[in-house]
Amino acid sequence: MQRKEFGLGDVVEMKKAHPCGTNAWKVIRMGMDIRIKCTGCEHSVLLPRMRFEQKLKKVLTSAESEGN
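^ DUF951 domain-containing protein, sequence as received from the core. Prediction below:
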């Protein structure tokens, strides 16, 4: 299985939506664990990297493409 490419500051879509109704999350911390923040209600969740990669559907916007 191919590893999915994502980076700090990317907005990603997860397989399941957050209870607030939003399915977009911003990556705010990377390491052995990944911290993501809901773009709808600002709730943050810390996931182990393996679990995050399993639940990641796709990258919606890349922080590198924004130019900063």
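The first helix runs from residue 49 to 55.
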